[in-house]
Write a structure and sequence with these properties.
Blueprint (H helix, E strand, L loop, with lengths): L1 H17 L17 H26 L5 H24 L13 H15 L2 H20 L10 H22 L7 H25 L24 H21 L10
Helix pairs in contact: 1-3, 2-6, 3-4, 3-6, 4-5, 4-6, 5-6, 5-7, 5-8, 7-8
Amino acid sequence: MFRVRELSYGKCVQLLDQLPIRVIDMHTNEFMMFSTTHMWAILIFFSLVGVLYASKNRLKLRVTNLRRLERSFSIVLLVFEILFHIWMAATGRWHLQDSLPLELCSISLLATIVLLWTGKRSIANFVIFAGIGGALQAMSTPVLDLDFPHFRFFHFFFTHAGIILTGLYFVWVKGYTPTLKGVFQAFLLLNVLLPVILFVNKEVEGNYMFLATKPLNGSLLDYLGPYPWYIASLEAVALGMFLLIWLLLRDKTNRRLPD
């Protein structure tokens, strides 16, 4: 069984290495925040948001025919995430301390995949508020060490952009109007997750959701006070972000997603 698993990892890494993106060389192309590649990634992302918004009325007319496309995109996101974990395992980067899918954006990505597959309104609340809010912050101040054209660079920006675009798609095209109730539902779910994350951090000496310490390369947390007070500040920022998203998106349409 071990040899089959090892062969599977090797084949996947070889496949990735044949793509026009660097996978194995981890010591070159160090990512720098606000660099040219970072700005290009942000520009492309906002261009996609603009295209989605401009196309929303045409997409609404075909919304019943988009189910296959939604599920296809969910599979693509899932495959990207699986390849990411295979790459980490194959290159010695996978560790219990930092590789479990327990970061906010990792949880949001899994929720996004399920949302695209099922269309559940309860999941849409979390993706629209926690997903969009967390992914926007992550893309603005990435915790990323490998630059273009590395696989990790593409994985990071593709999956984070996918979370945001999915949330906006469900508002603009599927016709789900975010509600104030949805804000507090997402915020409550986030706080239900916190004790679980704190427990895992203690058991594996991890720093999931940055609940143990701030990221080393700088982020919004640098402005929220010292440990552990920045956690309370982060709660306030998260709620404020959720409310801002609600204010920006709440009046777009009156339709609701089916439960």
